[in-house]
Structure formats: C-alpha cells, structure tokens
Amino acid sequence: MDMEQAKIPQATAKRLPLYYRFLNNLHSQGKLRVSSKELSEAVKVDSATIRRDFSYFGALGKKGYGYNVEYLLSFFRKTLDQDETTRVALIGVGNLGTAFLNYNFTKNNNTKIEIAFDANQERVGTEVGGVRVEHIDQLEEKIGDLSVAILTVPASAAQGITDRLVEAGVSGILNFTPARINVPSHIRVHHIDLAIELQALVYFLKHYPLNEPETEEDQ
Amino acid sequence: MDMEQAKIPQATAKRLPLYYRFLNNLHSQGKLRVSSKELSEAVKVDSATIRRDFSYFGALGKKGYGYNVEYLLSFFRKTLDQDETTRVALIGVGNLGTAFLNYNFTKNNNTKIEIAFDANQERVGTEVGGVRVEHIDQLEEKIGDLSVAILTVPASAAQGITDRLVEAGVSGILNFTPARINVPSHIRVHHIDLAIELQALVYFLKHYPLNEPETEEDQ
DNA sequence: TTAAGTATGTGAAAACTTTAACGACTTCTG
DNA sequence: CAGAAGTCGTTAAAGTTTTCACATACTTAA
Ligand SMILES: NC(=O)c1ccc[n+]([C@@H]2O[C@H](COP(=O)([O-])OP(=O)(O)OC[C@H]3O[C@@H](n4cnc5c(N)ncnc54)[C@H](O)[C@@H]3O)[C@@H](O)[C@H]2O)c1
Ligand SMILES: NC(=O)c1ccc[n+]([C@@H]2O[C@H](COP(=O)([O-])OP(=O)(O)OC[C@H]3O[C@@H](n4cnc5c(N)ncnc54)[C@H](O)[C@@H]3O)[C@@H](O)[C@H]2O)c1
C-alpha cells in the first residue's frame, strides 16, 4: 500500500487515467513534448487545472518547454500501477455484462476481466469474449484473490451478491445496477448509473441553456 | 425553456434523478411519508444535503413530519419533465449499443430510444430491442427532431458522427467513446468513460484506503 | 550573448459543495 | 392538553475544486 502520496485531491485522482490515455495517444503519434495548453485542448480540462494536478506529484515539467511525453507517460504508468495487470471479476453476464466481456480493457488500461459468474445455467460453461462463465453458486470457490468486481446483475440481486463478494474478499465494486448497495466501511463502491446519466443530461439541456443558440459557423 | 428556476447547483441537479427513482420505489411500496434521514439511507447521500437540495425548490416538507411521498414525487415528475417522453437516438449498434437498446429506460425514466443507426449493412433493417436500425448514411433524413443522441461508435468515428449530429440539430450527446469530441459551445456533451471509471476505482483502492481493514462483523 | 518568446509552478482569490448545528414548528403520546 | 420527540429549512462554517495571474526559468534563434 503505497502511502507516500496520500493527499492528492480526489478530483485530481479521477483525471489521472484520462491524462494517461491521452499521453499514450501522443506517444504513439511520436510526439516528444506537450504543453499543458495542448493537453488541455485534447482532454478538455482547463490548462491551469492540468498544471495544478501535475504539480501535486512534484515538478514534472520544465518552464519554457512543457512536459516530456515519454517521461510523463512513464511517471503516470508507475503512479497508476500500470505495470501489473489488475484482474477483476464480472457478475451478471446479461446485456451489459456481455458488452464488457467483449471489450478489451487491457488496450490502454492493463485491467483484465478474468472470470465471470451468472445464475443462468445456459450461460454457465460458455466463454464470452474469451472469459469463462462460472455459476454464481461457485463464486466463493472460484473468485480466488480478485479484489475488484463489476456488478451487472438485476437490481434485485445486487445486495445479496454484494454481501457475498465482500465476504469473499472483494474490496472494490463497480456497480452498474440502480440499487444503492450497503457495504462495510472498508469497501469502496463506485456507481455508474446509466439511466440517471441520461436523465441528468436531459435535465441539463432543458434547464441549463448554453450560449448562443447558433450562428451558422462555429467551432 | 423553463427559466424560472435557473440557479440550482449542478451537484444538486445531478442528484435529482436519483431522488426521483427512490421516491418512485417508496411510492410503489405504499409509503406515504419519508424523512430526509430515511431517504439518506436509501440513496446514500447525507441527509443535510438532501434537505439543502430540496430547499432550492422551496419548502417541500413539513417540520416534524418529513415529506409527503406523493407530493414530492409529483413535484419531481414535473421538475424532471417526466410527463413527456424524451426521445433519443443511438448511434453505433455494437456491444454497448445493443445492451442499451435492450434496456427499457422508460421504466422509471420516461426516456425512449426511438431510432438507431449503424454503418454495418448486416445490422441495418433489423430491429434490436424493438428499435429499428437505420444506415448511418440516412442519419440526416431519419433523425427527425430528436435532440439527444447516445454515441456508441468506435472512437475513430466519434468526431465525424458528432459533427453530423450537431448539424442535424442534436443538442445533447451522451458520449461513451474514449474520444473527447469537439462541439460548438451551445451543444452539451456528457462523457461516460467506462475504462476510466474502472481504472479510477483501482487507483482509489490502492491509494485511498478506507477505515478498518476488518473486524468480523460490520455494517 | 542576448533578447524575445514560451510555459511552468504556485500564491491567492473565487467558486462551488458539503456538513454541522439549531430555532421553529409539527406530530405524537399519555 | 402538555410535554416529549421528531424533522424541516437555513445560517454559518468548513472543505474542496477551479481559475487567475505572474514571477521565474527555460528555449530558441539571431
Ligand atoms: N442494459 C443497460 O443498458 C442498462 C442500463 C442501465 C442500467 N442497467 C442495469 O445493469 C444491470 C444489468 O443490466 P442488463 O441489461 O445486462 O440485464 P440482464 O437481465 O440482461 O442481465 C442480468 C444477468 O444477470 C444474471 N443474474 C440474475 N441473477 C443473478 C444472480 N443472482 N447471480 C448472478 N447472475 C445473476 C442473469 O442471468 C443475466 O444474465 C441491471 O441492474 C440494470 O438495471 C442496464
Ligand atoms: N463495450 C464496452 O464495454 C466498452 C467499454 C468502454 C468503452 N467502450 C467504447 O464504446 C464504444 C462502443 O463500444 P462497443 O464495444 O459497442 O464497440 P463495437 O465495435 O461493438 O460497436 C461499434 C458499432 O459502431 C458501428 N459503427 C462503426 N463505425 C460507424 C459509423 N461511422 N457510423 C455508425 N456506426 C458505426 C459498428 O458497425 C459497430 O456496430 C467504443 O468507442 C468503445 O471504445 C466500450
């Protein structure tokens, strides 16, 4: 548990993977250096915010020059522990679960779904996206030492499965169900609530009008 | 454009759909009233925050009593424009797009995907989750007056499709691609970046340890 | 060498968000 | 009906995040 760096603001921490991805892009394009201004345009985060974010880790750049892409990339690779693959479990191989299993998170992320569980006998024993689907009854036996789970079961099953995941040693859950699950205080749950995101977008559109309605040519 | 209510904090606005959903649940359960404390336990938002959020809309509750579920529900139904169905388009009927098409957002949300587009001829003409899939070449002709789009195409296609959506009159985009798209300033884009959410969860687990490692019985 | 140009890192301010605390009023109980 | 209990709405404080603005230091090119 790397504690030497503990008070990076949460808002900053959430942006790190985004920076990392775009640095990877720049690197693949052969770019050797980048300024906070350029990065700002790419990731759509204010350049002062980017400089501030980076500064929490020390002086990563050089005045008058910007940041060395290779150096920054390798710094973030370490910071984000991208040298070791993070292995996760997925529970609920339905519509959403299947989509995730078919997606290669390892691409620029070094995270891999290792095993999946479902209650539906027809799914059990098959492979989806190269991942074996086990029966949910075998959760405790087969989950091994995985500490992160993606939850894509029906809302009604969410709390029960969560309790079992916690008991089985999982410490982080990415919850896609609409249920707000109860967990002991040492377990971290992140909610991704797609229906709410959609509804919020619609609300903002109606109630938070942006600038100019239109003027023929923009952007 | 309902302007009478314009300075509700964004953080509050984002929680409204969550409140609305849980009020619906309570209502189905036949509950007549609810306190900010009960609601707090259900949605996992501090009760003071809930009271503060509600207070932006006036005095919705009664001291010593709490909130009347039916009243609150109908208030939020109006506030969130849930009386009219919001119709949206989906672009990219792949793994993720298919999952969304098979999901019934209308359940407690009154949002409906009306039409889908894809570049793959084999998909065009089929129905997925009851939604007709059209060819992307027909986007401009068939999108009609829809003003919200869900973007689930490959990242490489994201900017091109976005430009066409904007030109076709769409004003809100829910972007699931890892691309950070450019839009004129009057267009609203919300990003849902699943790979980043997963990576951020992993980062938080490693670097932001929560309380007690464990003590046998919790929660 | 020097001058012009560039871009960082950060102090300070501003903006936004959450949380604590409590007076005021309502409901409940006996 | 009176006192106890409950709960809101809000003032004020604390905490978090973003943004401004600039001294400083490096780069570039002549
Ligand atoms: N599909 C979407 O677009 C979408 C959108 C928003 C929210 N969600 C939420 O995501 C979750 C999954 O959605 P979905 O569309 O994939 O649903 P789904 O019904 O397609 O898939 C659920 C899967 O979980 C399995 N399952 C059921 N009970 C189980 C249990 N006890 N243990 C293990 N597996 C079990 C089912 O067999 C099924 O394969 C739901 O909670 C849903 O509300 C989905
Ligand atoms: N599946 C996941 O779990 C997941 C996770 C994170 C991010 N994403 C992102 O979501 C997006 C979609 O992912 P996916 O897994 O569904 O991909 P996918 O390849 O399964 O689906 C993409 C679909 O878009 C269609 N398409 C391609 N070009 C098009 C165009 N110009 N116009 C219209 N349609 C076009 C393809 O025919 C295909 O059906 C991608 O950008 C991906 O990076 C997906």
Automatic annotation (TrEMBL), chains A, B:
<comment type="function">
    <text>Modulates transcription in response to changes in cellular NADH/NAD(+) redox state.</text>
</comment>
<protein>
    <recommendedName>
        <fullName>Redox-sensing transcriptional repressor Rex</fullName>
    </recommendedName>
</protein>
<comment type="similarity">
    <text>Belongs to the transcriptional regulatory Rex family.</text>
</comment>
<keyword id="KW-0805">Transcription regulation</keyword>
<dbReference type="GO" id="GO:0045892">
    <property type="term" value="P:negative regulation of DNA-templated transcription"/>
</dbReference>
<dbReference type="GO" id="GO:0003677">
    <property type="term" value="F:DNA binding"/>
</dbReference>
<feature type="binding site">
    <location>
        <begin position="92"/>
        <end position="97"/>
    </location>
    <ligand>
        <name>NAD(+)</name>
    </ligand>
</feature>
<dbReference type="Pfam" id="PF06971">
    <property type="entry name" value="Put_DNA-bind_N"/>
</dbReference>
<keyword id="KW-0804">Transcription</keyword>
<keyword id="KW-0238">DNA-binding</keyword>
<keyword id="KW-0678">Repressor</keyword>
<dbReference type="GO" id="GO:0051775">
    <property type="term" value="P:response to redox state"/>
</dbReference>
<feature type="domain" description="CoA-binding">
    <location>
        <begin position="81"/>
        <end position="180"/>
    </location>
</feature>
<keyword id="KW-0963">Cytoplasm</keyword>
<dbReference type="InterPro" id="IPR022876">
    <property type="entry name" value="Tscrpt_rep_Rex"/>
</dbReference>
<dbReference type="GO" id="GO:0003700">
    <property type="term" value="F:DNA-binding transcription factor activity"/>
</dbReference>
<dbReference type="InterPro" id="IPR003781">
    <property type="entry name" value="CoA-bd"/>
</dbReference>
<dbReference type="GO" id="GO:0005737">
    <property type="term" value="C:cytoplasm"/>
</dbReference>
<dbReference type="InterPro" id="IPR058203">
    <property type="entry name" value="Rex_bacilli-type"/>
</dbReference>
<dbReference type="InterPro" id="IPR036390">
    <property type="entry name" value="WH_DNA-bd_sf"/>
</dbReference>
<dbReference type="InterPro" id="IPR009718">
    <property type="entry name" value="Rex_DNA-bd_C_dom"/>
</dbReference>
<dbReference type="Pfam" id="PF02629">
    <property type="entry name" value="CoA_binding"/>
</dbReference>
<feature type="DNA-binding region" description="H-T-H motif">
    <location>
        <begin position="18"/>
        <end position="57"/>
    </location>
</feature>
<keyword id="KW-0520">NAD</keyword>
<dbReference type="InterPro" id="IPR036291">
    <property type="entry name" value="NAD(P)-bd_dom_sf"/>
</dbReference>
<dbReference type="InterPro" id="IPR036388">
    <property type="entry name" value="WH-like_DNA-bd_sf"/>
</dbReference>
<comment type="subunit">
    <text>Homodimer.</text>
</comment>
